[in-house]
Structures
1.
Amino acid sequence: MPAARPTDDNDLAAIQALLDRLPPDHEPMDVVMIDGWLCGVLLQPSPVAQARWLPPVIDADGRPPPPDFDAPRLQSLLLRRHAALNRAIERRDWFDPWVFALDAAASPSETVMPWVAGFAAALETFPALLQRFEPRLLEPLALLYRHLDRDDIEDGDAILEFIDALEPSASLADAVEDLVQAVLLIADVSRPRRGPPPPRRGPR
């Protein structure tokens, strides 16, 4: 079963290698964007079927892979990550986002931007979360969307007020911690727990 064990670095490398084998006319997400995308999918108030969230990972226009592509292997790896993120969200537990340091000149925002772009793409593709809860999500969304270009935040006057009140991320570790914090805060709204929540663990 895909959820039998969590993903590791080998699985992550295997996912990217599979995506790199897609034809040149396909536009797949990279692994960082996929991780943000999956979190945006999992935070929806109702479950999103795999048949809806998987095709955009393989191609921006939803084109299927060629017959000789190892789609079952990719699906298995992605479902394992989907399950691991779902467990963390359900338990309000820390998880390690797939974010990787770039060159020394890259800012924290530049480094986490692809992850946030994947998350934002999921909320645009599956609008139920914002349609139902947007006023209650402005503060945690600001933790994420401050890493995007302001011109890319549609109808963002309200959220920009929250962004302007935030201090810039002092380090990549701070920016990554904010990703996790925002996801868990949004989960409190869209996927509320029954009974008092357990204390959240911080980054390892």
2.
Amino acid sequence: MHYHIHRALVPPDLSADFDTAPWADAETLEITHWHERGSDHKPRVRAKVLYDDDALYLHFHVEDRYVLARRQGYQDHVCRDSCVEFFVQPRPDTTRPGYFNFEVNCGGAILLAYAVPAQASSQPVSDDWLDRITIAHTLPARIDKEIDQPTTWRVAYSIPIALLDHYTGRLDDRSPAPDLTCRANCYKGADEPPPPHGGMWRNVEGKLSFHKPEYFGDIHFT
């Protein structure tokens, strides 16, 4: 399973609708695999990715229910809320094959770490870098009382290429360039809202854990 990331001619508006330009020119990735340990709640989740010389741009569109957003600070456990996640391994075939887990709840709170599988280690990304990630969201930052009705929400954010380079080395002499291939997966989860669920773009087998880079799929810069 492959996904092609198109170059944006201008930085996309993170607050724009999912199907407006330039997001309309991006391929759509859909979460279609649901872990057997989850519930019958399987929200429709679509994502789009664009890039330019400065950043990656992610846009998630979620048709959900049972929505919560109780975590607000950096590096809080946002996976317990209604959350979308982007795990990316920028340089899988090099001596620095670590991956990032960008986890953002529906209220725009973020958890981000850089993990090196071979070393079984993970380090939180510093607040200085988190300050450089711009996040747009359509729901309030905090939702204490569960929204128990069909609810559509969106989260979009920009990831500085410099952040990726800082941990993995430069992706390419010209930043992300055509024909560059990375590895990634996208997820939708919620641990606390009953019923809990875990959805994936690329199916993850065995124990329910999103931290399995061996199941990532290829993403190509075009």
3.
Amino acid sequence: MAPSTAPLHLETPAHERLIVALDVDDAGTARTIVSELKGSVGAFKIGLQLFTSAGPSLVKDICEAGVRIFLDLKFHDIPNTVTKASLEASKLGVWMFNMHASGGAAMMRQATQEVEEFCDRASLTKPLIIGVTVLTSASDQELREIGIDKSAIDQVLALSMLANSCGLDGVVASPLEAKRIREQARTEFVIVTPGIRPKTATHDDQKRVMSPGEALSAGSDYLVVGRPVIGAADRIAAVDAIISEIAQFS
């Protein structure tokens, strides 16, 4: 089987912990940001907006240039459909991709198993497969509106432990839940945290947020930052400031 890409938590360099979200609407802008910041950050995230605009060819091009991509499409469907989509993500060469843990155990187990088998046969490094728990824009009230009576933190923990038991490499979770996940999950379980805002930045539509240092202290492995970097007048300076804070807690 291809070697695992899961990190050793205490050995990951500070800059590799930062994932910059390419929350833009065209390939040209995305390529400019990647060209400007590659080598200074650990990876770039491509989500629904950019993927819908530019398609898988952009993902493949960036991966083939040796840049790590977190494909943030949040797969959620019947097990066979999610498995097939997961195999296509693996063929693109992405470093990491995700699926909704609320899709259930059968979906997560089948996708994980078939991706492992495919990467083994093709001599590819298996992407990290992580589960989406509760979106960082969601509140307890919003969970109740869709019929979930648990608090956000309890729902995150329940889904994290399900993903852990199904063999996923980690989860997406807010920094508010990272400490409890770290206490309960297996040692190599990866916690990827969006909703990271430097203290000087606005929270925008995010509700469960922390600063980079607070998130790392809570147990997060990778931090996803979008607008505070890509919207900065000096992106390099914005990245350097975040990495300096990360280095203090790594």
4.
Amino acid sequence: MGAVQVQRTLVKSLPEVWAQLSETELLAPLFGDTFGEIAITRLDAESRIEWEGEHANGLVELEARGFGTRVRLTALVEDPPPPPEPEPEPRRSWLARLLRRPAPAAPEPEPVPEPEPLLEPAAARSALSGLLDEVGAARHRPFSRRD
């Protein structure tokens, strides 16, 4: 498994960021469809959120930092499978080589089912960065101004 990680310090309080990320109903839409359906599997109060998705698993780490919150997102994505090894050519007998007869045709290999597409690390990184952009965006807070 390969790890894709992004981090950023957001100018928001730790409780505010925690409130945006600590519930599956709020976290899942922030990822979009990149990781498929996700579920939060473990919470450590205001510091760590572990999640599992259809296409990856991950971790959200939070830490109060100066005037904001450092958010580190990690997604564990499957490494692509190794390419198939080439079929060895059939060995010809010494008599066939001596008489220069062609080697017998190799049997047709059985078709291999198409594997499910893997989540590309670039797509995972983009989804994680998008989540940080969304969570870090300034929002109008009602009653925060006096008119």
